[in-house]
Recover the amino acids of this structure.
């Protein structure tokens, strides 16, 4: 059975649109509570959200559906996604739920699920929940929230992070922090200040409608400017729900996500903490990552795009570090989901231990030239069934051999197809990309 509502990262859409309404959230809560008989067993369900205006209504609607089938709902309020996942795990919940649309504008919202260990659900589990939506209609979403309200969610999460750095180890460090007017606007500054850091904060005044608006991981330009202006050691930016990290070095230069993965893998191996000397990355990661880490005795395992697929490979292979170059980085020994603040603390730990600036640590790898783009599509036809696309892919792969690679994939949340071409020569990359784009446009756009 194909998923109808769930995409790459939960369910997402415009609030009040065709799918994401209060009524749908209540139906989804009802279905999720029936899944694996969670409600019948009186399972605890922990719910959190980001700072969007629509978040509270969706949370209450979903709680109504969960409560109707017997689940015990605990609302932890506005918290980053990794904090909700951690709280669910630490308090023995059967399910964690986050109402968020991550890096999308405020008019969007979404719903993510986490299992009892704090990991995102598999495709198969999401299909099971969807199958229980049929016949759930007429849900009343007008009532008050019936459940518990927890006020210690932030503290439980921040306590988990205290062992990453020695107390006071960031004293004298100046950091620019951009929390995207989102869920991390309190937890990230409070945690960094506990370690002694001197902060310049931005994107820390959420009003319900300004999440990700010109700030955060999608708009790091002003972060870089402020790092230079204030002579900071680095800049840190999150997306709206805090499961992503974007870095800027002391010179105001953005650090590529694959470079961040590389320096973290090297640091973990140096300290004997990299399980099986392996990093798990996605198909989206640069070929230069493999080349750099191979030379240091570190293998790179690749998965399809999506941090939950990274986690599945990590769990199956017994690995403890993985991530995406978009900034989702998983340290599974602490939290089995992407955690922007934890990743930032690990980078700071490397800077403190090695007494090197971020620019020096970032020279750990060379990026292969690449070109990426996206084209709108009317329908997401299976690419394996489009003969003209298979033909150009075959030709390009034959020409590239070990000099490059090509990746085509549909977005999990938008009606677009993403193109990536990478190689060891920039002129060849441009030529290969142009040929691929022409063929894809003719076939699908």
């Amino acid at each position: 059975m194909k998923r109808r509502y769930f995409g790459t990262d939960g369910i997402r859409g415009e609030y009040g649109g065709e799918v994401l309404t209060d009524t749908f959230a209540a139906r989804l809560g009802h279905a999720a509570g029936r899944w694996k008989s969670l409600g019948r067993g009186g399972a605890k369900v922990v719910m959190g959200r980001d700072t969007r205006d629509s978040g509270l209504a969706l949370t209450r609607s979903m709680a109504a559906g969960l409560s109707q089938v017997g689940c015990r709902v605990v609302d932890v309020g506005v918290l980053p996604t990794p904090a909700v996942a951690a709280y669910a795990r630490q308090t023995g919940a059967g399910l964690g739920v986050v109402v968020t649309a991550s890096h999308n504008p405020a008019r969007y919202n979404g719903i993510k699920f986490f299992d009892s260990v704090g990991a995102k659900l598999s495709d198969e589990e999401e299909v099971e929940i969807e199958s229980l939506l049929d016949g759930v209609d007429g849900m009343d979403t007008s009532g008050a929230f019936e459940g518990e309200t927890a006020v210690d969610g932030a503290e439980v999460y921040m306590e988990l992070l205290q062992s990453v750095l020695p107390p006071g180890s960031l004293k004298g460090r100046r950091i620019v922090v951009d929390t995207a007017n989102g869920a991390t606007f309190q937890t990230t500054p409070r945690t960094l200040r506990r370690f002694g850091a001197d902060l310049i904060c931005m994107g820390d005044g959420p009003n319900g409608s300004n999440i990700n608006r010109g700030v955060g991981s999608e708009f790091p330009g002003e972060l870089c400017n402020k790092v230079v202006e204030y002579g900071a050691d680095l800049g840190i930016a999150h997306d709206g729900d805090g499961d992503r990290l974007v870095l800027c070095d002391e010179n105001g230069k953005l650090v590529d996500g694959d470079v961040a993965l590389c320096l973290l893998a090297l640091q973990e191996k140096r300290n004997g903490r990299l399980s099986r000397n392996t990093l798990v990355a996605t198909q989206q990661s640069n070929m230069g990552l493999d080349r750099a880490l191979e030379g240091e005795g570190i293998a790179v395992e690749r998965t399809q795009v999506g941090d939950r697929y990274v986690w599945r490979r990590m769990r199956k292979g017994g690995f403890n570090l993985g991530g995406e170059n978009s900034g989702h980085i998983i340290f599974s020994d602490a939290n089995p989901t992407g955690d922007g603040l934890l990743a930032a603390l690990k980078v700071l730990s490397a800077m403190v231990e090695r007494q090197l600036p971020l620019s020096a640590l970032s020279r750990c790898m060379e990026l292969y030239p690449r070109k990426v783009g996206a084209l709108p599509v009317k329908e997401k036809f299976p690419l394996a069934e489009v003969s003209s696309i298979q033909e150009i892919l075959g030709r390009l792969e034959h020409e590239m051999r070990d000099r490059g690679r090509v990746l085509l994939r549909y977005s999990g949340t938008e009606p677009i197809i993403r193109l990536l071409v990478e190689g060891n020569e920039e002129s060849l990359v441009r030529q290969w990309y142009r040929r691929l784009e022409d063929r894809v446009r003719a076939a699908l756009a």
In short: The chain is about 35% helix and 20% strand.
